[in-house]
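This is your field. Please look over both lines of this record.
***
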Amino acid sequence: MAIVHRYDFVLLFDVKDGNPNGDPDAGNLPRIDAETGHGLVTDVSLKRKVRNFVGLVKGETPPYEIYVKEKAILNQTHERAYVATDNGELLKGEEKKRKGGGDAVTAARNWMCANFYDVRTFGAVMSTGVNCGQVRGPVQLTFARSVAPIVSLEHSITRMAVATEAEAEKQDGDNRTMGRKHTVPYGLYVAHGFVSSFLAKQTGFSDDDLELLLKALEQMFEHDRSAARGEMATRGLYVFKHESELGNAHAHSLFERIQVQPVDPSKPARDFADFRVTVNDADLPTGVTLQRRVG
């Protein structure tokens, strides 16, 4: 059964001597707000880590397959939906490309929601090529923004090898390749998330799916290590549960109960201990409970 409560949550994570989310249009520099200097991590980057975690722990098997994954060919997945719902004959004609409704499209969309975790969680546009419709997911994430301005450092690195014999001849056997690497010395980021029970009914997002999502947010950085990202960790996950499906309080008023401040604003932060996290769980609005998953 789909969830019957609304949820809002606050996610805190940090990075030390790494690049949490490089911008390919800016030479892979860490993303930054040019006006304030605060660091940014896109919602797409966070969702990618959730997808990778679910694929890792669930073995890419239904109902936990991952739709958007490396080297995926999406229209081939759409074709699977038509075959599985006994509408494979439509793949031979132009009906598969028709935009709009139809029993075949509805059946394919429902099959995708039932079998692919990220479709029923985050939604997907599946109306290109082989038409499986569109799904608006119950879970939405914001960009993550650093609590304090970040500093982007650039480092020269050397590889003691070259790729081709021609490169070696040009260097008279020195065989060195120079490169660049960008890091943030330290950054503590905050992202907000929202879970709608009304949209969950449309995709079948269940309590078990919610628990898996929260577990992924807790542990996803532990299984996403790379030399480029340095040390990253979830430092806080605070989940507000509403008794009402519509919600018992505005999300922004709940988020304001989680305050993160530098211990000494005059000194650059280099560790999580340089910040103070204050959680105001007194006098919560009627019908709202707070669960501290991390922190």
